[in-house]
Amino acid sequence: MLRVPRYWREIPYRYRLIGSKCKNCSKIYFPPKQRCRVCGSTELEPVNLPRRGRVITYTVIRSPPSGYEKYAPYIVGIIELEGGVRILSQIVDCDPTEITIGMEVEAAFRRVIEQGEAGVIEYGYKFRPIIKP
Amino acid sequence: MRKVAIIGVGCTKVDDHWGKSLRNLFADAALKALEDSGIERVDSLYVGNMSSGFLQGQEHLGALMADSIGMPGIPAVKVEAACASGGVAFHEGFKAVVSGLADLVLVGGVEKMTDTLTPYVSSAMIMAEDQEYTAYTGVTFVGLNALIHRLYMETFKAKPEEIAMFPVVDHQHAVNNSFAQFQSTITVDRVLKSPFVADPLHILECAGIGDGAAAAVLCPLEKAKEFTDTPIEVAASTVVTDTLSLHERDNLLTFSASQRAAKSAYEMAKIEQSDVDVLEVHDAFSILGPISLEDLGFVKKGEGAKFTMEGQTAIGGKLPTNTFGGLKARGHPVGATGVYQIVELTWQLRGEAGKNQVNGAEIGMAQNIGGIGATVTVHILRRVK
Q: For chain A, which has fewer Cβ within 10 Å, the N-terminal or C-terminal residue?
């Protein structure tokens, strides 16, 4: 369970998918880094990540950690965003029997966990299938 | 650099030890190792443990455990590297002897996981991963391994029954190990009919929750014969790290930390991988067995599961692996696992492995993984002729 400041400082990354980009070699990181592991530069700048991508692999969590019990079973997958950065996320609005490797998904803003009756409600990204018209 | 030898080992059975505390377990294993080595005191102590702070609300294990074994006063410290805590603690003990700062060093690993409920154990285990960006998604440690498992099957067209063979062989080996958590056999069919914990990983493909401790005493090789007729040389000890999170790696099916730790270890011990007679790999989940066989260089990428299916990792096969039951059947009290591997290899190389003895075993190798491949230790042990 996160205290308010710890939740608050993660808001840019969780609400808006902000990563960091190396000004020297253009490598993009999520989560953001303070030093580039490729070229060693410490000059990195915030960058908005693409909000669409495809599923690389996935699982269905049936024995959840404390705090997530009421959501189980739920899907968690690794998503490769457009441009190549990968992110781990829940995948929602999709039945566990319907998800496939390669499925196209997009970021959505969702409730993640509630810190009890009187605590903070944490929000952040989850991904959902792209509905084609 | 001085050479290092193991002169004594000991462990508890991995079990639900309702009547024993964290310190009781540690002391049981440590006192056995001291008795085995025939010494009364050591110069320093390293304690491998992952989650005592969360599971018991207890930190400061260095001083606590030194006190518990009647040696308050010696330098003592807890070493934490998730499930590789035991392996890294052993590496720190190795360094203390190599450097000349200490002559007699005790390394113990301990974890007591049954002091709380399963969801809290799941929470403790995922603390090995990034809390802000990984645990936050609600993924579990089993779930992260399931991501690899699915991709492995997809990429290499591996069949579920081939991957399920790894825990089946573990259980065969554990039948003769009185320290094992599960001294019973299972079948591939039973594994694949057991419930999913995180699809496609079934519960019988996952190491269980258990309590245990293991310990080893180290000294300079040149002095080892003063204490034992059967010293075991620590021919290599390596630790390599990688990005903390799986999704940040380009290749999800190779633990490059495993590859690099093994490569450095072969060089340090001056051996080829074909010289290894008996192997311990960190198969907390079935899929880690085949992947580790590949990363350590014993088979080509994608062939680990088939190799297991052919029976090559069983005692009597080309590469006897996890001969006391591995993480699945001997058990995986996380911070102790890396030291259990050392204890078991020592028994093999001394010729004390009973019904599970690999005949003529001279070189043993242990691989201990922390997190999802973010820390890997490799140790190579050699019988002293």
A: C
Q: Do A96 and B199 touch (CB under 8 A)?
A: yes
What's the rounded Cα separation, in Å, for the pair B57 and B255?
32
Contact B368, B83 (CB under 8 A): yes
Residues of B with Cβ-Cβ distance to A105 under 8 angstroms: none
Q: Confirm if B14 and B54 have CB atoms less than 8 A apart.
A: no
Of the candidates A10, A56, A78, the beta carbon closest to that of B132 is on A10
Give me B217's structure tokens. Answer: 């005493």
pTM of the model: 0.97
Question: In terms of pLDDT, which residue wins out, A93 or A115?
Answer: A93
pLDDT digits over B316-331, tens only? Answer: 999 999 999 999 999 9
Flag whether the ipTM exceeds 0.90: yes
| H, E, C per residue of chain B | CCCEEEEEEEECCCECCCCCCHHHHHHHHHHHHHHHHCCCCCCEEEEECCCHHHHCCCCCHHHHHHHHCCCCCCCEEEECECECHHHHHHHHHHHHHHHCCCCCEEEEEEECCCCCCHHHHHHHHHCCCCCCCCHHHCCCHHHHHHHHHHHHHHHHCCCHHHHHHHHHHHHHHHCCCCCCCCCCCCCHHHHHHCCEEEECEEHHHECCCCEEEEEEEEEEHHHHCCCCCCCEEEEEEEEEECCCCHHHCCCCCCCHHHHHHHHHHHHHHCCCHHHCCEEECCCCECCHHHHHHHHCCCCCCCCHHHHHHCCCCCCCCCCCECCCCHHHHHCCCHHHHHHHHHHHHHHHHHCCCHHHCCCCCCEEEEEEEECCCCEEEEEEEEECC
Residues of B in contact with A56 (CB under 8 A): 151, 252
CB contact under 8 A, B122 and A64: yes
Per-residue tokens: A103: 């499925």
Half-sphere exposure of A116 (CA within 13 A, CB side): 5
Cα–Cα distance, B174 to B356 (Å, whole number): 9
Token pair recorded at residue B185: 């056999």
